[in-house]
Amino acid sequence: MKKSTLALVVMGVMAASAAQAAEVYNKDGNKLDLYGRVKAEHYFSDNASVDGDQSYIRLGFKGQTQINDLLTGFGQWEYQVAANKVEGDPNTAKTRLAFAGLKAGDYGSFDYGRNYGVLYNVAAYTDMIPEFGDDSFVKTDNFMTGRANGLATYRNNNFFGLVDGLKFALQYQGKNENDGRAASKANGDGFGTSLSYDFGDSGFTWGAAYSNSNRTLTQQESSWGKGTDAEAWTTGFKYDANKIYLAAIYAETRNMTPISGTASINGVNTKVSGFANKNQAMEIVAQYQFDFGLRPSIGYIQSKGKDIEGVGDADLVKYIDVAATYYFNKNMSAFVDYKINQLNDKNKLGLNTDDVVALGLVYQF
Question: Please, what are the domains in the chain?
Answer without folding.
Answer: 105-364 (2.40.160.10)
